Amino acid sequence: MRFIIVDLEATCRESGMPREEMEIIEIGAVELLSPIAEPTREFSRFVRPTLNPELSAFCTQLTGISQRDVDRAEGFSTVFPAFLDWIGPEPYTLCSWGAYDLTQFLQDLARHGLTPPPAFNATRHLNLKKRFADKLGTRPLGMATALRHVGLPLLGRHHRGIDDAYNIAALARLIL
């Protein structure tokens, strides 16, 4: 079974933003060919937001994603099919740290009139945050805290989709 470890970044503001207004601005993902394999491939693309095309200073500071990055990016309706092409055919398990990423995908798919693939549903999605807490007997932990808990370094920039996907994959290899 292939595991697709995904991490999304989305528009945000320091004062908060209604959930329904958040939009994906980065899809980062890596593929594991087995539960113990090193990542074999990666997908990293910025996405141009449409509801709130101007990133807040907070969002840019948090993610390191610039206004120029998203202005030059293609829209979700183009990037998401490219992501599916990268994933390839089933079977695979979509995995993320928590339920946020799946929920955000479903929201953006609905916003753009796209049909979710079969693997993009709550019964097939693997919530690695929950799996980690269950396996290690902890409360649910953020990804960076979980890495510290098991003595792994945080690689790259936290809150960059592709860097976080690699970090989540390191945790997945311990718990799958």
Keywords:
18% strand; single chain; 176 residues; RNaseH_sf; 38% helix; hydrolase
Mind explaining what this structure looks like?
38% of the residues lie in helices and 18% in strands. It is an alpha/beta fold. It has a single domain, classed as Nucleotidyltransferase, domain 5, CATH 3.30.420.10. Strands 3-2-1-4-5 form a five-stranded mixed sheet. The relative contact order is 0.20. GO terms for molecular function: 3'-5'-RNA exonuclease activity; nucleic acid binding. It holds the Pfam family RNase_T. Keywords: Exonuclease, Hydrolase, Nuclease. It comes from Armatimonas rosea.
Strand content: 15-25%
Gyration radius, in Å: 15 Å
CATH topology: Nucleotidyltransferase, domain 5
Record the strand order, biggest sheet. 3-2-1-4-5
Order of helices and strands: EEEHHHEHEHHH
* Shape, principal axes of CA atoms: globular
The strand count comes to 5
CATH class: Alpha Beta
Structure class: alpha/beta
Q: What is the level-2 CATH architecture name?
A: 2-Layer Sandwich
Helical fraction: 25-40%
Q: Main β-sheet, in a few words?
A: 5 strands, mixed
Low-pLDDT runs of 5+ residues are none
Q: What value does the average pLDDT take?
A: 97
Number of helices: 7
> How many domains is the backbone divided into?
1
Amino-to-carboxy terminus distance? 11 Å
CATH fourth-tier homologous superfamily:
Ribonuclease H-like superfamily/Ribonuclease H
Domain Exonuclease: 2-176
GO molecular function: 3'-5'-RNA exonuclease activity; nucleic acid binding
Pfam families: RNase_T (PF00929)
Protein name: Inhibitor of KinA sporulation pathway (Predicted exonuclease)
